[in-house]
Description:
By secondary structure, the chain is α+β, with helices and mostly antiparallel strands. The protein has helices at residues 63-84, 95-99, 183-225; strands spanning 13-14, 18-24, 43-51, 57-62, 93-94, 105-107, 117-126, 129-131, 138-140, 145-154, 156-158, 164-166, 172-181. Helix content is 31%, strand content 31%. Helix 1 packs antiparallel against helix 3 (183-225). The model is unreliable at 1-8 and 28-40 (pLDDT under 50).
Amino acid sequence: MAQQYISDELGATITNKWVFSIAPVPVGAESQSPYNCMNHSKTAMQLRLSEVGGERVVFNMTWPQFDTLKRAVNKAQENITMEKNKKTSPFFWELSDSAGDDNFVRIFGDPDNKGLCPVRKLVIRRQPMRKNSATGEMEWAKSPWYIEIASGKGRKLQNKTGGYYMDPKSYVEINRVHCNLSDGRMKEHVFWGEFFMDIFESAVKDSVLKGYNRLLAQKEDFKRRA
């Protein structure tokens, strides 16, 4: 009997081929890094995907990018019944069309001895109808959400505004993993991501408030002693 794969990630979807999960992640090396989750331009959600027994590939989404995905997932959830009853057009959706292609080819870190830096690529799309390879006819997909994360290396170039992008001709792929999810499972992942984020933000805000009040108390004490 094949050994069952066990994941330490709460809310993960586990199949006999792959494991997928979404979880909040703070970024930054500064002393204030735990508070970055309160800045919506910072990384909010990490998408984690791996083949069973394989290396996990991750992609960090900003909060606005995750919010774009969340709205698409909610719309798909509302349209499911009407789609299949032909009361509305099938909802085809691509993340790069909604949030910009360049945001999902990310290059970062320092170059290696060949001058190449780590690269991550993300593709998310909803394809509610697919062609049956046997009959050639279009049919409803049971798992319309397609997610693909690729890792590799590329040459980092700097643009006029000081940002960085990858030289497309330099890309060398190392790993690529993909999965398909149903509307229900995709909704659960977005829910878990938001749930964890709400807890994290609440804890951070509470910590900031307590620290601020403690600072005010120290200032008042200093005035009394002066």
